[in-house]
Amino acid sequence: EVKLSGDGRMGVVYDGADWNFSSRARVAFTLSGTTDSGLEFGASFKTSDIRGDAAGADGLEDPRAGNRGTVFISGAFGKLTMGDVASAPEELFGDLADVGYMGDDWGTANGGTNDIPYLTLDNETTSGLMYTYSAGSFSVAAAMTDGNGYGSALQGTFEADTQAYSVAAAYTFGNYTVGLGYEQLDRTGSVLDMSQTELAGIAKFGNTDVKAYYAIGGDANPVDDAVGLSVASTFNAITVKGYVQNVDYVAAGVDSVTWYGLGADYDLGGGAILAAGVQDDDINGSDPTANVGVKFKF
Amino acid sequence: EVKLSGDGRMGVVYDGADWNFSSRARVAFTLSGTTDSGLEFGASFKTSDIRGDAAGADGLEDPRAGNRGTVFISGAFGKLTMGDVASAPEELFGDLADVGYMGDDWGTANGGTNDIPYLTLDNETTSGLMYTYSAGSFSVAAAMTDGNGYGSALQGTFEADTQAYSVAAAYTFGNYTVGLGYEQLDRTGSVLDMSQTELAGIAKFGNTDVKAYYAIGGDANPVDDAVGLSVASTFNAITVKGYVQNVDYVAAGVDSVTWYGLGADYDLGGGAILAAGVQDDDINGSDPTANVGVKFKF
Amino acid sequence: EVKLSGDGRMGVVYDGADWNFSSRARVAFTLSGTTDSGLEFGASFKTSDIRGDAAGADGLEDPRAGNRGTVFISGAFGKLTMGDVASAPEELFGDLADVGYMGDDWGTANGGTNDIPYLTLDNETTSGLMYTYSAGSFSVAAAMTDGNGYGSALQGTFEADTQAYSVAAAYTFGNYTVGLGYEQLDRTGSVLDMSQTELAGIAKFGNTDVKAYYAIGGDANPVDDAVGLSVASTFNAITVKGYVQNVDYVAAGVDSVTWYGLGADYDLGGGAILAAGVQDDDINGSDPTANVGVKFKF
């Protein structure tokens, strides 16, 4: 069976200097089936109205990036997913609450967004394998790429002999989830290998969702440690959201960076949300950015 | 909700020297929803079987061009559309009647088609904003692009500091519509700015549709004035169509150009039309072009 | 009417040196209609989750290749198809039985697969025209490209003055089909023209399908002759498949090449098949390749 759904957005974005238009429409294909023995299988990917917009290079957005295509098979053994998968910790913990109608496609003048800075498979288009399994309150995930290379040739980040691994576990009790993740990037020359460990906590207090993480870089990872927190509170049709993150770098003389976002969503009903957000960082000479618009689910 | 529709065409095209094949199939996605307060929103775009054909560079047709993706929200205030919009006058007046199964994708040996030579947002892929409003017999439209740049980077026509504006109004009484439009292109250096004013008339006499326009270039627009007329008459399953256009240029010594098209459609029913057309211009040394084929709606 | 269907696959591929991941998901659009006089028309093409995988250049798979888009109209006169058509003999005889979950997308270390080495329109994206007609036990097909050029500009194989022609006929009696095909490639300079004649036989013995062909190259075709055979036998949920092919070259001192594949499919039901296959050739220094995975129909 093939099912269709869609999303769209339109609004204006401020990059610290100019207000520009940005809109997008996408259709998601969701394919699903079941074997005679009860294994479930499926696939999903997206197609979009591809144009240049303020968030991408003008007129040069590439149809091959970002469709998040995956294929899976699942059963009592868990779920195996192949394709444009995330890292194991991102699969279990996700990112912080986003702000504005552009979500994580729009960040500070220096690129900071609500995305948690996971080390591996974060918005890459490398083909990877993900295994996930849940039993009661426990969830585990493991992800890896093959030895064929890592990164995006289109974006000039492809490395032929680099391989990524990650594992993560989460435990949920009532409205609280805690999790631990570990990621490794094996690059040519062992001194270039990088690793990262993440501790994450997710909690729900009434109408308020809180998420926090702490990450420690290892090996040749330029990140010493990173920490972040987001809060989202819903009052009737309005959701107020905010996040703050800080990264410290290993290198002497490189300043740590703090960035944050504040936003509000107004639910118009029927799948439409009016959203506005402001984001900024403490890097010298950079102005706040903002975006205001509507986002749609179809 | 996501709805699907489609179109296709197949036939042969004569470019003045050779007859070649040309075919295409497309699917259009139409997304729609309604907010709790009754605002309508939606989006639409197309995907196609992308191959090189006689009308494009061989094997190099780009999937990012021409999907005409837009996102809109509408209510009592009118309609706001963002994305690959047309200019305001094109939105209200459209183009002249097309000839042949290729429509405006196939023109004279020098590229003249049934398209009215609007100054702005004509087959560009720049992100723009369109506002339209109708009250009784009156319709108005306004369109603009943001300051992020104008034109298509893919086609090498992108200008970073160029912005387009346009406004148009139309009045309909019975079977007649008259309209006035104004377009402006602000380019780097004020002496490079261009403008254009269009006067258009659309009439229906029994089974005959007539459309005519007169356009006057201003500022640095190389066009002095342009004029065009099309007639389409339907006799049972057959529609005979023709258009003629003329452009005078400002520059001394540059000849004016006249071009025209003549065609006939035969309605096969069920969404299929057999169509043939011939187009030519009065530029020295260019031969007539032609195309014959079937076009489908699904 | 627009109908959707889909396919997907996931698994691992061994290229003779490394095991890598490879997955893909696709959606096929099938468009159909009928004219008032009963002519049927339609179109079909595919869209996919486009990523680099082990079978393609990393991250550089192109969305314009392989969607196999075609448009057709059919009636008592036969069927006319335009677009990404195959050659006439491939249309009537197809290819040998494939092995593994990757089908003909995965072959020996030197690229040999279950594909019969047809001379023309084999996995090209050139726009062509196909005519097919069946009457009782007889089927005929004819295919040609226009003079606009041949091959794929994207893959660097485009030749501006090359044109392909092919004709084929097949006769079916009971469980047996025999066929004859002829292909011609007219290239710039008559001494570069190539031709090829194919004789094919298809038979069904109980649960076993057998297909064989013999091809003779002519004119400047570097192939002297080629021969191949495939057998596929089904035992309940299991299908065992194998093929072997041999090509002799005209040039003195160029070794002939033999390659083969062996595989098994296990039908999981519901549209899912577990498939494994091994392929190898007798070229010095090349190791066997293999692939194991699941393939899905939606």
Task: Jot down its keywords.
homotrimer; 298 residues; mainly beta; Porin; 16-stranded antiparallel β-barrel; 16 strands
Rounded to an integer, what's the Rg of chain A over CA atoms? 20 Å
Indicate the proportion of strand residues of chain A.
over 45%
Subunit organisation of the chains: homotrimer
* Helix-strand pattern of chain A: EEEEEHEEEEEEEEEEE
Helix coverage percent of residues of chain A? Answer: under 10%
Q: Based on Cα principal axes, name the global outline of chain A.
A: globular
**Number of contiguous helices of chain A:** 1
Most strands sheet of chain A:
16 strands, antiparallel, barrel
Strand order of the largest sheet of chain A: 1-2-3-4-5-6-7-8-9-10-11-12-13-14-15-16
CATH fold-level label of chain A: Porin
Structural class determined from secondary elements of chain A: mainly beta
User: What is the CATH superfamily classification of chain A?
Assistant: Porin
Report on the structure:
Three copies of one chain form a homotrimer. Chain A is mainly β and 298 residues long. The first copy, chain A, has one domain (2-297): Porin (Beta Barrel). Chain A contains one helix and 16 strands. In chain A, strands 1-2-3-4-5-6-7-8-9-10-11-12-13-14-15-16 form a 16-stranded antiparallel beta barrel. Residues 52-61 of chain A have low confidence and may be disordered. Chains in contact: A-B, A-C, B-C. At the A-B interface, strand 1, strand 2 and strand 16 of A face strand 2, strand 3, strand 4 and strand 5 of B.
